[in-house]
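Section handout 9: paired folding examples.
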Amino acid sequence: MKKLLIVGLIFASAQVVAHHATVTNFTQNIITVTGKVEQIRFQNPHSSILMKVADEEGEEKYWLVESDARTTYEKKGWSLDSIRVGSEITVSGREGRRDYTMYLTRAELEDGTVFTSSGTE
């Protein structure tokens, strides 16, 4: 029974570590898009922004911009009021391996405020 418990804990901890590995979901290629914020989810363990972005032909696509945890951003000066649904923002980040996804490294808000993965510029 004790061996079974130890094996279970090892597998459970491996899954937690694997969950936070961004290398499997995002490349090192940095991309930038500008669009309208449709939804914001500031939560743990990851926050996200859903944006509507027009491509080169003018067709609108939905982008999922994944990012760090809510608590991480709050420590860096972000708050729930920093980004508003309906506002236009420009985001940069690591390109996703899935279409229309990225991992946020920089966001510029309508008022010119810039947030980066290390805090406010």
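Moving on to protein 2 of 2.
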Amino acid sequence: MTAATVRHVGDGQTDDEAPPRGTAIVRPLRHVRAGREHHARRFTDPAQVAASRSARAWTWALGENPTAPVTDQLTAVPPSRADIEAEITVADERRDRGDRENRADGAAKVLRWLIGDDDHIPARGKGLGALVGGFGDVVRSREQIAGVLALAVNAQRRAEAQGRDINADPDDRQFARQDADYLDGVVGTLAWVLGQRAEAPLSPGCARELTTRDLKVERVHAEDVIEHARHPRMTGRVASPWFGEGVKFSITWLLGDSKMRPVDPSGRGPYGEASELPAMLHDAQVRQRTL
């Protein structure tokens, strides 16, 4: 892929915060440009580009090439979302069959990211978060993180108040206290990542400059807390399982392992009354009811 080809992306489009005009891509144009340029650095020869299904995935999705990268079929230019999803499906089928020839995992990864089905940046290397406004391997911008943090802080205060309300239903108070604990984990994690707190929410001691390894280690600690809290003998010796869930889901979102924010639009966690979080996070509530 040449520099001239990369510059072709979005020619004539002045708003680089909007997706590439007329395509099924949902990412901002500036993120698409950055991701594509980084991806192109792996190639040193035009022949490699022509043979690469992942390189062709960029040109096809952007409407620069009518030939689909997985099936090699001609499609509309640019392709529709349905066209892109069909290519991903074929790539997945090849992978699931264990095909050694004609694999297209890289192309599927590019296409998933472009249409917003996966937040993992389709590129190799460390520090990829900067390509999409993040930092390190965090794929969320500081502004995004600060926005979620503000929602969580306010919702935590409401949950704590509801948990102390003697006029509320006992079950409602119980779930409010659980949600307050969960949100405490979210707040502690996001404040730590933003540098507003020196210590990680679960690991003792002051952290040096935050690394991806720090985040992943903290997520392992959170999983340990969730598991150990199930045992009565650990009561009071480790953080609550709901706190652990808040830490875990926050880090999962930060690293792009989940598209879902750790709070709903009102800042509630999965245990809050009328929470709008998807079923995946509500499953945490079901698991914890048995504790």
